[in-house]
Amino acid sequence: LAIGFGLGLAYFNSLVTVLGQQIQILGYTDNDAGLYGFLLLGFGMVGCAVFGPLMDATHKYKAILKSLAVLSIVAVAALCVSLRPNNHVMLGIVFALLGFLVLPLLPTSFECMVECTYPMPEEVTNGIMLSIGNVVGVGMTILWQRLIDDTGHYQGVFVSYNYVQVSFLGLAVVFLFLFDGDYKRLTAERVHADAVSATRCLTSERFSEPESGEAKAFVKRLLNREDTGASLESV
């Protein structure tokens, strides 16, 4: 997951850095570069606003992560095809789509890493992932800029810098798909909630049936003990 995130972050940072240089050789202006950068980041924030609450509501972290990864590689392929002169509208649409799909991969990856490394502090895991992305991003940016300079002008879709961006994000998608960590934090939160629910049932004046299966089993285990008071103290 850390490698996949690092490659994805490196790609996004490099794309933002070389965006102006990449489209200038196609005849676009600095104003065009500013507009496309705004669409990339703006719709990326919209994507985060959409997929963030969706993750919180469903807890389908891995499913959302892998779905975004697949759609992102499709969007990158569409960008490579769209990078040609006098294609303003299509480029704007593709940059907006790319931002909407790629940028939410970053917080989604953070959530997946926090889940599978719990109880390790979030600052540690997030710092490691960001470090990998920033280090790889420096090298990718230098390579990408050199390939653009060597190309010099529009030579079609099948050029070296397009191969690089598809390869980097494609490799990131492979690593993200290999991720299959457990939801340790979510499991711990559910166990704690069930324990609290069971304790309230035992200590309340009016006994009520706990809702979840785990809570019911917990109550039965406590009731079967001779020393219920000691059991409650352990909770």
Descriptive account of the structure:
With 235 residues, this protein is mainly alpha-helical. It is elongated and about 75 Å long. The protein starts with a helix and ends with a helix. The chain has 10 helices and no strands. α3 runs antiparallel to α5.
Order of SSEs: HHHHHHHHHH
| Computed CA radius of gyration, to the nearest angstrom | 24 Å
What spatial form do the alpha-carbon principal axes imply?
elongated
The helicity comes to over 70%
Beta fraction: under 5%
* C-alpha termini separation: 35 Å
What does the secondary structure layout of this molecule look like, with pairings?
Blueprint: H1 2-24, H2 30-58, H3 61-82, H4 88-102, H5 105-117, H6 122-151, H7 160-178, H8 184-203, H9 213-223, H10 228-234
Helix pairs in contact: 1-2, 1-5, 1-6, 1-7, 2-4, 3-4, 3-5, 3-7, 5-6, 6-7, 8-9
Key terms:
mainly alpha; elongated; 235 residues
Task: Write a brief structural summary.
With 235 residues, this protein is mainly α.
